[in-house]
Automatic annotation (TrEMBL):
The keyword Transmembrane helix does not apply. GO terms for molecular function: ATP binding; metal ion binding; methionine-tRNA ligase activity; tRNA binding. ATP binds at residue 335. GO terms for biological process: methionyl-tRNA aminoacylation. This is Methionine--tRNA ligase. The gene is metG. Belongs to the class-I aminoacyl-tRNA synthetase family. MetG type 1 subfamily. GO terms for cellular component: cytosol. InterPro entries: aa-tRNA-synth_I_CS (IPR001412), Anticodon_Met (IPR041872), Met-tRNA-synth_bsu_C (IPR004495), Met-tRNA_ligase_1 (IPR023458), Met-tRNA_synth (IPR014758), Methionyl/Leucyl_tRNA_Synth (IPR015413), MetRS_core (IPR033911), MetRS_Zn (IPR029038).
Length: 740
């Protein structure tokens, strides 16, 4: 038996949690925690509401309320939503409490004493009209790396780039919409650079981490770590425990990660064992897992380990199985999008285990995944209900009706074919769940259900009962063995329905107490069976929700994609990562394009080559120069690759050729956000399937091995001229690379 500490990302208490939170960072740790309890491990699961920082104050100002009122209201709403989702914490707490303040102050003072904190004047945005310094989320602008608009000033949600004041293009104050200036303010800094070598060694030892986590972390480390300010000019947050600093607070990115430790300490006090937390934080045999979304990776793979190294004597993260994003209508699910995707709304209409199943089978573990109501309906009805639920009911109801009890087996264990399949599934299940591969884990469970249905049909118990009732009983015993195995292995994913099936089999103890060994244990022949009821029911999506599923193909039709040829490429005089390029797309005058390609291409590699341009993008000034479009490039860095490559046509077609896949695209000007709603990937193909996600795609035999595809839910089309010219890349890169 081992100890496992599961640390769950803290959702901001500025609105109700939504499906993206659950799929990204709340459901995976619950599945993992339940699995570890099944195998007999001692599990501590901690987290709570992040109640500080600007998301809370922004919401409070919009509502005309106070930060503490907003934070406590949404803490209660989200705590209930998490409980209603069946997600179990040892403690779900909040950061705005005395215990958290005390632990943060102790760590602040300890790091200050060790000279890991120091004072320094730093640049910050200042709004002269509002006459105040502006925290990160009070400033928005355009990301200088990927061009995403409405990006907050601390980090880009799209590409993950973090910023310092002055980095954003066209920054604006969210209050008065004026352009803030950069002024200096005295702040405390964490001497993160002091931990560079130790963190590099730490990361190098984590060869089992997910590629996206390694890639994000490597990008932070490659140029050396820089010290970071840990205080801000705000009134809402953890106060600085020093006189003269009353107008500032400890910033949320520093104090929130300390919440994992403070929550463990609070839990230990609550259960009357104040030193219990030390068994989880000081015993080197205890493994720490951090379940987060990909936008939180550097804070958990770099900054929090750095703080822990500075404190000394506490366990560093063992694994950080960060998930990608659950996408909705082409964009990341967010509280600001609205719609009936928040958890209270979803659970008012649909069964919790149906929601848990869908988010498990569609989990964005290594790639962004798309949520649509149509796909939700399809997977629940055609998989959960028709395969698993139907198998449960047909086995239990047929046995109860004809025998009233569990029949005897045809040997001590049952049919070798059935037992071998159960054990094979259990081996795969253990391999998947022990390595946090939950999507493959639930797929293994569903494959066993499909095997069970095939076995039931092949044995034809409805005919056998008339010919040889004793033999029919043995066949049904085999089927009930599969039902028992399924209910136990499905429990971490769908606990409520699994417990119902478990009780239908006559068990009094819970699945958790029975443990994973129950998968292969012998059924108690002769025990009575009660009449079962179906545990899952088909879902029907209301018309308004079906209509709310916008098609990515509709967004794609807004973009006018043209083959262009690069006439010239010059260094941008004020930005070391940008080129100023002239591109011929068959117009009287070449287009001027500003592109961040200097890290990937030389001028010589660019001039003369053909590429693909979004030609109807609204012109925008980037670092002082007008850009009249956007070149398309594939980027696999977020999925563990190291390549950024321009898309190119596979044939030497004339400049100006439309790469519209045969669809009638618009020539009207579009905003960058319209194009960002389109999901494109670069992938190899196998037959008529994309290798990156196995989606069916219509392509001719002469199509290249690597293509660019536009994704729309369960559909995909190849980016082409509608004939025999396709968009591809020069060299091999990881399947599923995104296009930007």
């Amino acid at each position: 038996m081992s100890k496992i500490c599961i640390n769950i990302a803290w959702p901001y208490a500025n609105g109700p949690i939504h499906l993206g939170h659950v799929a990204g960072s709340l459901l995976p740790p619950d599945i993992f925690g339940r699995y570890n309890r099944l195998i007999g491990n001692e599990v501590l699961v901690v987290g709570g509401s992040d109640q500080h920082g600007t998301p809370i104050t922004v919401t409070a100002e919009k509502e005309g309320s106070t930060p503490d009122a907003v934070a406590d209201r949404y803490h209660k709403i989200n705590k209930k939503a998490i409980e209603d989702m069946g997600i179990q914490y040892s403690l779900f707490t909040k950061t705005n409490c005395a215990n958290h303040f005390e632990v943060v102050h102790n760590i602040f003072n300890d790091l200050l004493k060790k000279d890991y904190l120091y004072e320094k004047l730093t640049d910050q945005y200042y709004c002269e009209k509002c006459q105040k310094f502006l925290p990160d989320r009070y400033v928005e602008g355009t990301c200088p790396k990927c061009g995403k608009e409405d990006t907050r000033s601390d980090q880009c949600d799209k590409c993950g780039t973090t910023f310092e004041p002055g980095d954003l293009i066209k920054p604006r104050c969210i209050h008065c919409k004026g352009e803030p200036v950069v002024k200096q303010s005295n702040q405390f800094f964490l001497r993160l650079s002091a931990f560079n070598d130790q963190l590099t060694d730490f990361i190098d030892s984590k060869d089992y981490w997910r590629p996206n986590v390694k890639a994000f972390t490597a990008n932070w480390l490659k140029d050396g770590l820089h010290d970071r300010a840990i205080t801000r000019d705000m009134s809402w947050g953890v106060p600085i425990p020093l006189p003269g600093w009353e107008d500032k607070v400890i910033y949320v990115w520093f104090e929130a990660v300390i919440g994992y430790l403070s929550a463990s300490i609070e839990y230990s006090k609550n259960v009357g064992k104040p030193d219990l937390w030390e068994e989880y934080w000081k015993d080197p045999n205890t493994k720490h897992y951090y379940f987060i979304g990909k936008d939180n990776i550097p804070f958990h793979s770099i900054i929090w380990p750095g703080i822990l190294i500075g404190i000394g004597g506490l366990n560093l993260p063992y694994d950080i199985p960060a998930n990608e994003y659950l996408m909705f209508k082409g964009g990341k699910l967010s509280k600001s999008r609205g719609g009936a995707i928040d958890i209270p709304s979803v659970l008012s209409k649909y069964d919790v285990d149906a929601v848990r199943y869908y988010l498990s089978i569609n989990m964005p573990d290594t790639h962004d995944s798309d949520f649509t109501w149509e796909d939700f309906q399809t997977k629940v009805n055609n998989e959960l209900v028709s395969a698993l639920g139907n198998y449960y009911h047909r086995c239990l109801s047929f046995t109860q009706k004809n025998f009233g009890k569990i029949p005897g087996a045809d040997s001590k264990e049952g049919s070798k074919e059935v037992i071998d399949m159960i054990r094979l599934t259990l081996d795969e299940y253990n391999e998947c769940l022990s390595h946090c591969d939950f999507k493959k884990g639930i797929k293994a469970v569903m494959e066993l259900a499909r095997f069970g249905n095939r076995y039931f049909d092949s044995m034809k118990p409805w005919a056998l009962i008339k010919e040889n009732k004793e033999q029919c009983g043995k066949v049904l015993n085999n089927n009930l063995m599969i039902v028992k195995a399924l209910s136990v292995m499905a429990w971490p994913f769908m606990p409520r329905s699994s417990e119902r099936i478990w009780k239908d089999l006559g068990y009094k103890e819970s699945i958790e107490k029975s443990g994973l060994d129950a998968v292969t244990s012998k059924l108690p022949a002769g025990r009575g069976l009660s009449e079962p009821m179906p545990v899952y029911k088909k879902v029907e999506i209301p018309k308004e929700e079906e209509e709310d599923d916008a098609s990515a193909f509709a967004d794609f039709k807004k973009a006018d994609l043209r083959v262009g040829q690069i006439v010239s490429a010059d260094n941008h005089p004020d930005a070391e990562k940008l080129f100023l390029m002239k591109i011929d797309i068959g117009e009287a005058v070449p287009r001027q394009i500003v592109a961040g390609l200097r890290a990937y291409y030389s001028k010589e590699q660019l001039v003369g080559r053909k590429m693909i341009l979004v030609s109807n993008l609204k012109p925008a000034k980037l670092r002082g120069y007008m850009s009249e479009g956007m070149v398309l490039a594939a980027d696999d860095e977020a999925i563990g690759g190291k390549s950024v490559q321009l898309l190119r046509p596979t044939k030497d077609v004339p400049v100006g050729t439309k790469m519209n896949s045969g669809l009638e695209n618009s020539s009207a000007q579009i905003e960058i956000k319209d194009f960002q709603n389109v999901k494109m990937v670069v992938s190899k193909t196998s037959g008529k399937k994309l290798l990156c996600n196995s989606l069916e795609i219509e392509i001719p035999k002469e199509a290249p091995k690597v293509i660019t595809a536009v994704i729309d839910g369960d559909s995909a089309i190849a980016l082409s001229d509608g004939k025999d010219c396709f968009a591809t890349v020069d060299n091999e890169m990881k399947d599923g690379a995104g296009v930007r």
